[in-house]
Amino acid sequence: MSTENVPAVTMPTYSSPESYYNTWETRGRYRLLLGGRRHFAYYEPGTLWPFPLGPALKRMEDHVFTSLELQPGAKVLDAGCGTGQVALHMAHKGLQIQAIDITKNHVRWTQQRIKAEGMQDMVTVRWGDYHHLKDMADESFDGVYTMETLVHASDPVKAMSEFYRVLKPGGHVAFHEYDHIDASKIPFGCPPGFLEAATRINSRSRMPGFEIFNRGVLPRIMKDQGFEDIESRDLTANMRPLMRLFFLLAYIPYLLICLLGLQAYFVSTEAGVVSYRALRRGYWRYMVFTAQKRE
After folding, report:
1. In CA terms, which of 67, 97, 135, 205 is 20 to 30 Å from 259?
2. By the 8 A CB rule, do 234 and 193 touch?
3. How many other C-beta atoms lie within 10 A of the C-beta of residue 273?
4. Residue 277 neighbours by CB distance under 10 Å
């Protein structure tokens, strides 16, 4: 993907994503539908029936593992581990995982899972902000990955600089994230109120990174920090079945909250409908960006 002629990065200001992840609506959706996981699932393109969800969620975790191209025993940073399932999945494949998360409940739940699975020798977790990794030594990791967490970055350039610093020469990164077309280029005739709804969802989901991730921005940030062999792969068709399920489950409740004017209080419900409609129109994509640090 060309990174030329990408507009300069200007960051919006939002509060911490912890407030989003601690709402009853967000916690309920992730727990009831995804077993506590915080990421999309992977299907063969064209899949209509999304069930069972468990194997499809693990296939996306497998995709993270293969994208890193690392051998068992490699030391890897999970930058935004959520409730720990991805970190544990990587550990069961032989990677040594250092997990961090800015949400205290996520850290606590991950600690519980590590202990329950007896994986203390393979996974460690602590509270941490990937913008500030000062307690981590230079060139101390063989790999770094994010699973839909860099969209929460208040300063993606700073975070990317830290990832580059702690990565060993020859190390690999894999970022499973979202990007979108420039809002100013959304075709005339988009659904009434769409841009307002999208802005509301982005703000209440605490995703300042996603707001500036026009197509090409994240690869440019990676390149500017020194990463090489940058590749971009579009996984939208692979995650679409789960997004469609979110839409179907949210549609009737969404009509009700719109009737009552309560959209601002049900961000996950509104996102289930608005985001799927935007996905179908090609306004945003689910991507994986991989790269390597020069040896």
Report:
1. 205
2. no
3. 23
4. 15
Q: How far apart are CA 40 and CA 279, in angstroms?
A: 14
**Dihedral of the alpha carbons of 16, 207, 106, 120, in degrees to the nearest 10:** -120
* Percent above pLDDT 90 for the chain: 78
C-alpha span between 200 and 261 (Å, rounded): 13
How far from 217 is each of 5, 17, 156, 223, 287, CA to CA, in Å?
A: 10, 21, 10, 10, 12
**Taking each helix axis from N to C terminus, what angle separates 236-260 and 24-34, rounded to the nearest 10 degrees?**
140
Cis peptide before 241 (omega within 30 of 0): no
Cβ count within 10 A of residue 71: 9
Beta strands in the chain (DSSP E): 75-79, 96-101, 123-127, 141-147, 167-180, 228-234, 284-292
Q: What is the dihedral angle through the alpha carbons of 6, 7, 13, 16, rounded to the nearest 10 degrees?
A: 0
pLDDT tens, position by position, 68-101: 999 999 999 999 999 999 999 999 999 999 999 9
Phi, psi of 228 (to 5 degrees): -125, 170
**CA separation for the pair 245, 240 (Å, rounded):** 9
55: phi then psi, degrees, rounded to nearest 5: -60, -35
pTM exceeds 0.70 for this model: yes
Express each pLDDT in 132-171 by its tens digit.
999 999 999 999 999 999 999 999 999 999 999 999 999 9
